[in-house]
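pls design
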């Protein structure tokens, strides 16, 4: 069976732990490869190599570091088809969507190409008599990223793109469910001119994660995954003196005001709810129509769209979404569907038992739709992360605003309306980190910043954009004077500008 190895110091490294994780082909349900799960000692060996490599890399001028980013972008673009197919083969998302996954990551690399400009510090001439003050951003040393299965291209690039551009070296611990693409990206990064040891991929599970969180040489940890693990990573990493940003789960709402363009809103909703089988932290699994008339019309239009949805294998160009990632995840989604029925929601479309001819053992779940979902239901409170759309009916704008604001998750939200004033008020008052106005998946562009609120993010610095640069650097401020001849007497009172 194919084995997926670590990538350390510019080379493939066969794991020696004797522990492995299964990597499935979600289309067929078969195990297609196994991935070595690192021990703490294996992680430590990679960190030592990264620490050595970081010294020379930090001393490389930012323009040269940026050239690696430019070349990496070119190499990935040239291999887009092959890389997207590889991603799909382990994740299950359709190839066109895998290209989007990689492309969104490349957009952060594009941002990182501008790092010489972004890293320019601040300077004040004459802050006092003959005194100049300037500040600079310096890299932290070795940083680490722990990533989820659902964006094996984009999320690793969010992290290592910026961390390495500013002069750190990096340990990437990708999801053990789709680990091959991150290794290919690291290989291409070396091919683009990065010195060996600057980007290392160490596969693993909790053992490797704990080793990262407690390793004295790792200065910062970026995590993306489910909220309970994010909270754990944040508290353990911070207790070990690290900077930590830990993005968690989500339950994003789409609010439909009565004046919305319903046909357009439904098209947007369907893509956002069922695309990638709902396995996106910026999916829209909850729709909140305001008023019974809007709700009834919306439900009919959603049903008509579901009727035309095509679920297929990830390489089928006509398929709109493919299988979910594992049998265990499929089971979890189906359990939530049953829970929704037991809680008294109306199951309008049941995606359980969906079977694709020739791929009967694939991890497919058909599109599912619930109506009459109530805020107190567990299936509303929790993240399902599957192709399940829930309609929660609201009577008023205020009630629709309260639902996402009071929900435990606060990643993204979207409002559909033709009323600019209502949209503006909603965006201003809603207690959620990323807002779309007639935009169903409001993932900010790479030079802005990505991050949710409440249980969707622990720590206070977002991913990418200038916030990402701040996360991976520390600022140093220098106050300098060059006195001529004798200086004044000692000052025992703090100097001020009075
Ligand atoms: P996950 O939490 O199971 O895994 C994420 C990472 O944590 C993986 O690398 C995994 O190996 C590691 N891990 C798993 N169990 C662990 C444990 N007990 N201790 C330490 N580490 C552990 O998440 P997933 O299923 O891979 O990804 C889906 C989740 O990620 C969803 O909740 C989704 O909303 C979330 N997500 C959030 C964002 C965001 O930006 N907020 C983006 C993408 C995905």
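designed seq:
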């Amino acid at each position: 069976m194919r084995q997926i190895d670590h990538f350390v110091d510019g080379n493939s490294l066969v794991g020696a732990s004797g522990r492995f994780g299964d990597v499935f082909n979600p289309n067929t349900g078969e195990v297609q490869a196994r991935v070595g799960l690192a021990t703490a000692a294996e992680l430590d060996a990679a960190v030592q190599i990264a620490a050595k490599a970081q010294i020379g890399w930090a001393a490389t001028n930012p323009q040269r570091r940026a050239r690696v980013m430019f070349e990496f972008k070119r190499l990935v673009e040239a291999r887009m088809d092959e890389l997207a197919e590889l991603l799909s083969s382990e994740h299950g998302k359709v190839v066109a969507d895998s290209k989007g996954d990689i492309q969104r990551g490349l957009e952060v690399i594009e941002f990182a190409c501008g790092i010489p400009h972004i890293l320019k510090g601040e300077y004040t001439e004459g802050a006092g008599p003959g005194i100049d003050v300037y500040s600079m951003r310096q890299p932290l040393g070795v940083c680490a990223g722990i990533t989820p299965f659902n964006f094996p291209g984009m999320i690793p690039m969010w992290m290592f793109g910026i961390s390495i551009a500013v002069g750190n070296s990096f340990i990437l611990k990708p999801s053990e469910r789709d680990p091959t693409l991150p290794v290919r990206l690291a290989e291409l990064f070396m091919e683009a001119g990065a010195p060996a040891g600057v980007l290392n991929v160490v596969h693993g599970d909790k053992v490797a994660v704990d080793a990262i969180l407690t390793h004295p040489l790792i200065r910062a940890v970026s995590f993306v995954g489910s909220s309970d693990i994010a909270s754990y990573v944040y508290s353990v990493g911070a207790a070990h003196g690290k900077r930590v940003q830990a993005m968690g789960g989500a339950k994003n709402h789409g609010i439909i005001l009565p004046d919305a363009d319903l046909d357009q809103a439904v098209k947007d909703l369907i893509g956002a709810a069922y695309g990638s089988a709902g396995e996106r932290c910026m999916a829209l699994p909850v729709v909140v129509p305001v008023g019974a008339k809007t709700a009834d019309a919306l439900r009919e239009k959603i049903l008509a769209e579901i009727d035309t949805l095509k679920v297929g294998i990830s390489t089928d160009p006509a398929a709109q979404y493919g299988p979910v990632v594992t049998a265990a995840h499929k089971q979890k989604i189906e359990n939530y569907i049953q829970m929704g029925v037991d809680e008294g929601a109306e199951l309008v479309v049941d995606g359980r038992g969906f079977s694709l001819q020739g791929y009967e053992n694939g991890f497919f779940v058909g599109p599912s739709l619930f109506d009459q979902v109530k805020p107190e239901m567990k299936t509303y409170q929790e993240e399902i992360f599957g192709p399940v759309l829930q309609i929660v009916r609201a009577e008023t704008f205020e009630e629709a605003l309260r639902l996402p604001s009071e929900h435990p998750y606060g990643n993204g939200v979207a409002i559909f309306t033709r009323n600019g004033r209502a949209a503006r008020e909603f965006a201003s008052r809603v207690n959620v980190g990323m807002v779309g106005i007639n935009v169903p998946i409001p993932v900010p562009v790479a030079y802005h910043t990505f991050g949710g609120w409440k249980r969707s993010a622990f720590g206070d610095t977002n991913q990418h954009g200038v916030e990402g640069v701040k996360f991976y650097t520390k600022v140093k401020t220098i106050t300098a004077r060059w006195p001529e001849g004798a200086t004044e007497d000692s000052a025992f009172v703090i100097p001020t500008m009075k």
